[in-house]
Amino acid sequence: MHRLEPYHLWLGHAGDLAGVRAIIDGGICAVVDLALNEPSPQLPRDMVYCRIPLVDGTGNDPWILLSAIRTTASFLKLSVPTLVCCSAGLSRGPAIVAAALSTVIRKTPEDCLRLVSGSVSHDVSPGFWNEVVGVCHSLHEQSPVE
Known about the structure:
By secondary structure, the chain is of the alpha/beta class. The protein has one domain: Protein tyrosine phosphatase superfamily (Protein-Tyrosine Phosphatase, Chain A). It contains six helices and five strands. A five-stranded mixed beta sheet has the order 1-2-5-3-4. The chain is globular. The mean pLDDT is 91.
C-alpha cells in the first residue's frame, strides 16, 4: 500500500487486502476494490467495502466506471481514509484515483495521473484509460465548477 499524499487515499493491490492488520493499523476505513478477477477479501464487518469490478481494458459499461470514480471521489471529498486496489495495483487503481482526483481538485485526468504516478508505479492499459477519460470528461461537463 502506498499513500497518495496529502490525501487520505492509498493505492494497493489484491495482496494488500489479505493483510487486514496493515489496513486497520493504517487507519483505513473504506476499501474500493476494482479487481474483477480476484476473490472478495475477508475484511472486518465494520469496514466499508465497495466492490466495483472493472475489466483492465476496454468493454466496461460507462455506469460502472462512473460508479467507481464517484465513489472514490466521495470518499476523497469527505477525507475518509480509503484504500483503492485492483489486482496488481498498476492500472485500474491509479486510473480511477486519477479520475476521482480530477473531479475533486478540478485538474485534467492526465495531470492527475501524473500526480498519482509520482507516488506509485503504474502501467495503465491505454484502452481502459481512454474509457476512464471519456467518463471523466462527461462528469466535468455535468458538474459546475465550485
